[in-house]
Amino acid sequence: MYLKKKLMKAASICSYVCSAIWFVAAASAFALSDYTYWLFLIFALLSLYGGFAVTSIREKMTGVILEKKQNTLYLICWILSIVALPSFILNAIAYFRKTEDELVVIRQNVAQKEEPAPEREPEKKKPFYKTKCFVTMCVAFLLVFVCSFSAMIFETSGFSVKVSDFTLTKEMTETYNEGKIHGKAYTMENDTTYSVTMYVPSNATEENPAATVFVVPGFTRTKATMAQYCIELSRRGAVVFSLDPGGQGGTTETSTAGANGVEYLVQYVYNNTDDFKFCDKSRFGAVGHSAGGGNVCTLAADFAGDSYSESIIKSVYISGYIKASSANKYKNLNCNAALSYAYYDEGSFRYQTDSSALEVIMLRFINEVGGTKNDYKEVALDYGYGDMSAGTYRIIHREKINHCFEMYDKTSIANTLSFFDETLGMESGTDPYSQIWFGKEVSNGLALAAAFTFVIALCAVLMGVPFFATIKNGKKAKACVAEGPAADACTAEIAAGEAVADASEIGAEKPTDAPPDAAVAAVQKPKTFAHKVVFWTTMILTAIIACLDYIPLANLSIEIFPTGNSSSVFTYVFPARMINAILLWAVINGAIGLVLYYGTTLVENLYEKLRAKAKGTTPVYDWAKLEPVKIHGEKWHGVLFNVLKMLLLCVILFCSFYFLVQLCYWIFHQDFRFMLISAAPLNARMFVTALEYIPLILLFYVSNAIRVNGSIGREGWKEWKVLLVGALANSIGLAFILVINYVCFFMTGAPFYGYWGNGTEVWLYVNMVFSLVVMMFILPIFNRIFYKLTGSVWVGAIVCCSIFIMMTISASVSYIPM
Fold it and tell me: Is residue 673 within 8 Å of 437, Cβ to Cβ?
C-alpha cells in the first residue's frame, strides 16, 4: 500500500503541474482570440479536479485493494487523467497494483544503561531586550542604515559627486529671467514649485566648468526613477539636474507648462551666474524617457535659436517617444540629437498610419535637420548621420527591451552615455557599459526589505507589552516575553483558552486536558473532496475575475472620475488618475471575495444541516471560519478599547515605517525602492491624496486578510504552503494579465490591451501591473504574519493598505491643486 500511495501522490502532483500548463495555454489562446481557449480551460479543470479526486481516494484507502465505490471513482480519474499524460501513466501503474508491499524490518537492540534524566530547572523569563523580536527589530533598523549608506556610496560615486535637492519657485524664475533665452521669458505662471535634484562632480568648478545635462522622467514617474542616468553621467564628469514633472513626486505644479517644468529649470540655471558657475553654459544637454522624451524635444526646439551656436541645448536624447506632435519639431532642432525607441515598446501599436509609423518618424528624424531636407530612403540603426561640429548629428537606437524597463536597460543607458560623451565633449574615457547604478538599486531594495522587517518585529515587540497584548488575548493579562519552554507554555495556555472558546461558540464539546492543537482539531472536519472542489473553485473563480475585470474597470475609471484621461483637470476628488483604476479593481474584487467567502461558508453549513437531518445525526458546523474577523474583548467596552488600541498600533507602525524613510533621506539622500517599487518621503500633496483612497481600497486588504487566515490558513497545511498558496491566489490573476498582453504582443505586434471600449488607450495601465503583481504577492504573507502576531485580521490589513497605497500614490501622478 505504501508504494501505491506514493504513485497516487506523484500522479496528483503531475495533475496539478499539467493544470497550470493548461491554464497558461488557455490564456495564450485567449490572447490570440482563438476559441480553443475553452478546450484548454476544460483540460486545466479536468487535471486539477482529477488531482483532488485521486488525493481524496488516497487519504481514505485502507489497503491496496480499494472498495468498489472508490475503485470505480479511481478508474474514472485514471481515464480522465489522459489530459495529463504523466499522471495518466502513474495512475495506470497504481490502479493495477494489487499486492501488498513487503516490509523487511531489521531490529537491532542495543543495550544501554538507562540513566534518569536530570530535572530541568524552570527557564527564567528573559528581559524584553533579549527576546528574538527585539533583537530582530534592532538588526533590521541597523540594516536600513547600512544599506542606505551603501546606496549613498553608489549614488555619489564614492563621495566624488555632491548630491543635493532644491525647490524651484516662481520667484526664482522671475529673479533670473533677463531675457537671455532668445529674448523670450520663461517664468512660472503659478505660485507653485518644482522638486529638483542636482549632481555636481568634485572636478566641476568655476575654473573648470562641466558639461550639464537635464534629465526628465516620463508620465507617472519621479526623478528618482531616472537616478541611473544621473549617477552614470555625473560619474563621468557632467553636472546633472533632474526634476519631478508637473503633478508628480514632490512637485506642487500640476500643469505641463514649460515642457513639464524643464524649460523653467534650464532658464534658471542658464541665467543664474551666481550659483551655477561650475556649469559650462556652452555644453547643455537634455535626456528624457517616454513623455519626458517629448518634453526634452520641446525644450530643444524652443531654445534652438537660429543656429547651432545660438542653441542653448547642444545635445538632446529622446527616448521612448515618437508621437507626430514631437516629430513636427525635428526640423526646428539646431543641436545634435539621438532617438531611441525600444524594440518591444508596447505603445508602438498606436503608430501604424502613413504619417505616424515608426519607419516614417525615423526617416523624418534623419532627414529634417536644421531647417534643411535630406534625402535618406532607409534608416541604419546605431549609425551616426551628419556633422557633430555643426549640430546636425543624428543617430537612432532600438534596444531589445520593452517601454517601462527601457530606462533600466544597460544598453539603453550605455547608448545615452556614449552620445553625451561625444556630443558634449565630456571625454570621460570610461566604458559606457561600466555602470554602477544597479548597486544603488540593490542597496535601496535591501533597505526596503529591512524596513518591512523592522515594522513586523516592532509589532511583535509591542504585542509583548501588556497594554497591546489584550488585542490578541481579549482580556487583561501579562504578556509573554519569555522564550523557549516558558514562552511555549504561556502561548499554549492562551491558545487552549481560545480553542475552548471557539469550540463553545460552534456547539462542539469542550476539550479538557487536550492540548491546543487537539482542541482545534476537535472542531475541524476532515477536508472532503467536495470541500476541496468548493475551495479551489472559489480560488480559480476569483483569479479569473481579477484578471478579466482590471482593464474594463480601468476604462470605466477614465469615464466616471473627474480627471478622466486628461492632465488638465485639477480636482480634490480622486485626483490620482492612474490609481483610480486600482481603486475600482480593489473595491469590486474585494467585495466579490467577501461575498464568495461568506457565501460558501453559509452554503457549507447549510449543507451540513441538511445532511445531518437526513441521517438523523447531530450537525457539526464550521463557523470558526468567521473567528479571524472577531475583535476580542470583555464586554462591549473591552471590544471598543481594543479597537482603539488596534488603530493606535496601526498608526505607530505606519509612522515608524515612514519615519525610517524620512530619516534615511535626511541623512543619506536615499529612499527605499527597487526599480518600479518605491517608498518615498511623504509630502502634503501625496498624503492628502492617499487619505481619499485608503478607506475604500482597505476593503480589498481586509478581504484578503480574511481569506488567508480564515480559509487558506485552516486547511491543515504546513505554514510555507499556506503562505505560498495565499501569495499565488492573490497575484495569479494579475500575472495572467501580463501573460495575455505579451503573448498577443509578441505574436501579433500589438498588445492585447491596447485600446478598449470606444478606442480609449489603456496600455499604460498594464505597465502598472508589473509593480502591482509584486505587492499583491507579498500582501498575503504580511497579512498572515500580522495575524499570527495580533490574532486579528484588521491590523495587517490596515497597516499594509496604508503603506502600500502610500507607496503607490507617491510613485504616480496626482492632479490635486495644492
Answer: no
